[in-house]
Amino acid sequence: MTVRVALRLLPLLLLSAALSEAQSPASSRVIDGHREGVTSVAFHPDGTLLASGGKDGVLRLLDADTGGTKLGIDPAHSDAINSVAFSPAGDLVASAGSDRKVQVWEVSTGKAVSVFSRHTDVVEEVVFSPRGDLVASASQDKTVRLWEPRTGRELARLEGHAKKVEAVQFSPDGATLASSGKDGLVILWDVPSGGRRRILEGGTESVRTIAISPDGTWLAVGRKDGVVRVLNIHEGTEAWSRQAHEGGVESVDFAPGGETLASGGHDGVVWLLRAATGEPLGVLEGHTGAVTTVDFDSRGRRLASGSEDGKIRIWDLSDR
What is the tens place of the pLDDT at every residue in 116-136? Predict the structure, then answer.
């Protein structure tokens, strides 16, 4: 099924002139994702597979071209899956759940490799380090944990948030870890020592999602009030800030080249923004529920989005 992207005026950003420069509409493939809402999607490093997790506790590996299911683990968790992530080598996939566990699975067989169960509350996000030797998980127990993916052995417990931690991301060199939470903080951690380097954001609005640019210079922040901000990681200064969504920002992701930032929100739309300035490049519409997750493929030619409407859309951006 193909759905055209509607390019419309930007009432919140008040930058309709910039939208007139946007290229011709893209198209999307629609996939019936999960029995309940889709909470997380992630492209395999080679772009052939798409991992998805949902409120139904099911982990699916989909053919990224056809949308067909290559592997399904039902259930992977006894409660909702909140986050999925592939290892850099693509041989492992991790899933984090409301059952307080993080599971690591073999991509080729679906066999369980390890389970991390040291969190004492819902696990919101899981990510692999760039070398694949570490996993970071963020939890409502106010901690970030670092651990080994094949053994589940905990290496560090990072504490500094006053409320639940909602997002976590490694820098491209793996030396820095960023975390954000309901307390409005974005904290930068030194991975080798586990020490705190800097607090980038100190507002009152919950920071639901973060992303680090491919060159490691910029950090995108998506807040509960619908604001997207981009900050310089090294200096802590703001590059730009935009009221991008009506309702909370649920997910942000930089394209591999770093020139485009995608944001998905509670209003059911995905914005494509120029990463350097926040200028709107287009809006992807079609979901009938909140967009909970967005992810570019490794070449930046496709963007996957998942929604509370239970659908996954894979947008073709090759002509943009």
Answer: 999 999 999 999 999 999 999
